[in-house]
Amino acid sequence: MVRSNIKAILMERLIGVYALTKVIDSPHIIANGVAYFVHNSDNCIKYYETGSYILNDEEHAFHQERLFVFNDQKMQILSHKSQLLHEIELFCLKMPSCAFENVYICNFDKYVLSFSLYERGLIMNYKVVGSSKDYSIETRLHDLP
Fold first, then answer.
1. Which candidate, 98, 111, 128, 144, has a CA 20 to 30 Å from the CA of 105?
2. Beta-bridge partner residues of 141
3. C-beta separation of 120 from 143 below 8 A
4. Can you give the pTM of this predicted structure?
């Protein structure tokens, strides 16, 4: 029962449209855009972000999609191709921020996700480490003005 409440709270708090700021440390990039969390089904939220950044004096567009799939015990984060990226036990979420850390391994690369809700948005940080990768991505979502 408690897990169902966590699921309902988390789903309700995620749904919305947010201003997005994404900072990548190497190469140093600051991207701005919009992020959406929308109901896909009773147990699924679709996340979509879109925006742009400047690199080498040229503007580039970006977009990304994820699915947040819930059951009474777990939340799974899937790629746009439905590949499992992260799986989190709901009882492990630290309330009220629903904070968690989780690791995804892809070949020789490790993606460490730190996630935390706050009153008017959320923060998703990735630390990416691999044979030829070593960078961080901080994504901040906050209410639109």
1. 98
2. 20, 122
3. yes
4. 0.89
pLDDT for residue 1 is more than 50: no
What pLDDT shows up at residue 8? Answer: 87
Q: Which residues pair with 45 in a beta bridge?
A: 39, 68
d(CA 55, CA 27): 9
Both tokens assigned to 45: 């939220």
Whether the bond between 96 and the residue before it is cis, its omega within 30 degrees of 0, is yes
Q: For the chain, how big is the Rg over CA atoms in Å?
A: 15
For 3, the 3-state DSSP assignment is: helix
Question: What is the residue-averaged pLDDT of the chain?
Answer: 92
Examine the pLDDT at 134 and tell me if it is beyond 60. yes
DSSP class of residue 71 equals: -
Domain that holds residue 107: 2-143
How many domains does one find in the chain?
Answer: 1
Give the bridge partners for 79, in sequence order. Answer: 66
Helices of type H across the chain: 2-14
pLDDT tens digit sequence for 13-53: 999 999 999 999 999 999 999 999 999 998 999 999 999 99
